[in-house]
Amino acid sequence: MTQREDRLIYLDNNATTPMDPRVLEAMLPYFREKFGNAASRSHKYGWDAEEAVERAREQVATLIGASAKEIVFTSGATESDNLAIKGTVEMLADKGKHVVTCTTEHKAVIDSCKYLESKGAAEVTFLDPDRFGRVSRAQVEAALRPETVLITLMAANNEIGTLHPIAEIGALAHEKGIWFHSDATQAIAKVPFDVEAMKVDMASLSSHKIYGPKGVGALYVRRRNPRVRLAPQMHGGGHERGMRSGTLNVPGIVGLGEAARIAKLDFEKDQAHYKRLRERLDASIRSRLDHVELNGSPEWRLPSTLNLSFAYVEGESLIMGVPRVAVSSGSACTSASLEPSYVLRALGVGDELAHSSIRFSIGRFTTDEDVDRAADEIVKTVTRLRAMSPLYEMVQEGVDLRNVKWGSSH
Amino acid sequence: MTYSNKVLDHYEHPRNVGSLDKNDPKVGTGIVGAPECGDVMKLQIKVNEQGVIEDAKFKTFGCGSAIASSSLATEWVKGKTVDEALAIRNTDIVNELSLPPVKIHCSVLAEDAIRAALSDWKAKQGAPQGAGTEKKA
Predict the structure, then answer these.
(1) Strand residues in A153-200 grouped as ranges (E)
(2) Active site positions of B, annotated
(3) Could you give the ipTM of this predicted complex?
(4) Of the candidates B53, B52, B58, B51, which has an alpha carbon nearest to the alpha carbon of residue B29?
(5) I need a surface site. Which of A44, A117, A153, A293 has the fewest CB within 10 A?
(6) CB A12 within 8 A of CB A206
(7) Angstroms from B68 CA to nearest CA on chain A
(8) Which residues of B touch A386 (CB under 8 A)?
């Protein structure tokens, strides 16, 4: 085996992305000579750091159609989600405590909502999406109550890439005067996302999903129509307009800013690249394998995400057979939990197919060769595993698996 | 998830993959598990006149540890008498493959598969012989 064939292929860009070299370059001075605290007002170290942070704030704001003053820097999208949800519920406690969200949200949203419920601070409606993973404006509208204070819906799903109709729901929220938060972590830099056009009042984003460093993110908080004020969840020196205390992570913020600048600059190029390679991967796999199902929406989907179920093959054994291809599985045994993906379950994908699912996510640095080799490896391994799958054998014999009486489960 | 070398070896070079004629009176077939649980094992044995298992085959839908457990099970039952095969315990498989706690269910399933195959063979012979062999998986 040549060294070239041995190279790892990274197709898990929804989990995290490698840093763009331009981002690293931009960050380096802020670890070294420009190490100042952005809150130091009495010397050049502080001024330089503050200037860099404000430039980054402008860059992030520009990417999502906001103004710089509306950007609150955080440690990442999980913190942003926590701040948006808990901060809203606490701030608007006198107005009501009903929250509307969806069962396929990221755990940072679901668990923040459940935490508030457990404390008696919120009542949460978890909407069930359709079989493509989408909720409609009508569905959200039907769930609203006079005491609803927040709608929170992700712009794009991390596992299947499905896009909710954010602009329609934003319009609804504004008609009703309800604050609208969107976890835009996966959508940013992959599909158009504009807080004005979409009437989003809060939006979470993360640096490491857009070729920036880990450990930094932002929350967009609208300042006008409506003016959103959040109860801080981190108390201290009153940084970030009092919404998020703590010395700013200057190098990280500079990295996020640069990543945002590049994402804006290269948006169309990146988007076309994702889509072309995703289609190439999909076609390459599906032209050679039968019984492959797409999870998510064929129409309303991130251009970079491809979630497929390879029927009659279990996901973990498939991943084990492609050790040089970095992808993730919605199957039981791969993650810490033994349950198949809750997102796929919410779509009504049977547990059997959920166990057979693989998520491929294309990135800026993915090449044609990466995609071709990944497809070859997947096809080879699925074929091999199907040859030893009793289910595939039964199906070939004409048995309908739904009519089989299976034994006890373990 | 990291796998032991033995699990990797069985996954990469599974022993005795395939099928025997399930209508052959000498063949016992056991199918255990369920697709929605992520594991289905089919294990088949062929027993000769002396009551010795002369061939065994498997097919498994499941994780690498499930494939390895069933591959190992076929290796172990071959050449054993029916009663000897019944003495194989899931803990033997756990030890041999160094399965972590979250994968113990794979070994349980393999033991169940052996028992189910033996029980099917028994039923074909018409009458129960010997203790323990009627036990259903």
Answers:
(1) 179-183
(2) 37, 106
(3) 0.88
(4) B58
(5) A44
(6) no
(7) 11
(8) none
Is residue A3 within 8 angstroms of chain B, CB to CB?
no
* Alpha carbons A380 and A301: distance in angstroms, whole number: 27
| A residues 289-328 closer than 8 Å to B (CB) | 312-314, 316-317, 320-321
- Walking along chain A (410 residues) 10 residues at a time, the average pLDDT comes out as 72 97 98 96 97 98 98 98 98 98 97 98 98 98 98 97 98 98 98 98 98 98 96 95 96 98 98 98 97 96 97 92 90 53 90 89 98 97 97 92 73
Distance from C-alpha of A15 to C-alpha of A7, rounded to nearest angstrom: 20
Known catalytic residue at A333 = yes
Is there a contact between A100 and A125 (Cβ–Cβ < 8 Å)? yes
**Torsions phi, psi for A95 (to 5 deg):** -85, -35
Q: Which residue, chain included where needed, has tokens 């309303």?
A: A300
Residue with tokens 């699925």, as numbered in its chain: A382
Name the residue in chain B with its Cα closest to that of A330.
B38
pTM for this entry? 0.91
- Measured CA to CA, the distance from residue B68 to residue B60 in angstroms comes to 9
- For residues A253-279, one letter each, b for 16 or more C-beta atoms within 10 angstroms of the residue's C-beta and e for the rest, the string is bbbbbbbbbbbeeeeeebbebbbebbe
Beta strands at A179-183 and A202-206: parallel, antiparallel or unpaired:
parallel
For B69-120, the pLDDT digits (tens) are: 999 999 999 999 999 999 999 999 999 999 999 899 999 999 999 999 999 9
A331: contact with B, CB 8 A cutoff: yes
> ω into residue A226 within 30 of 0, thus cis?
yes
Extract the tokens encoding A244.
């998020």
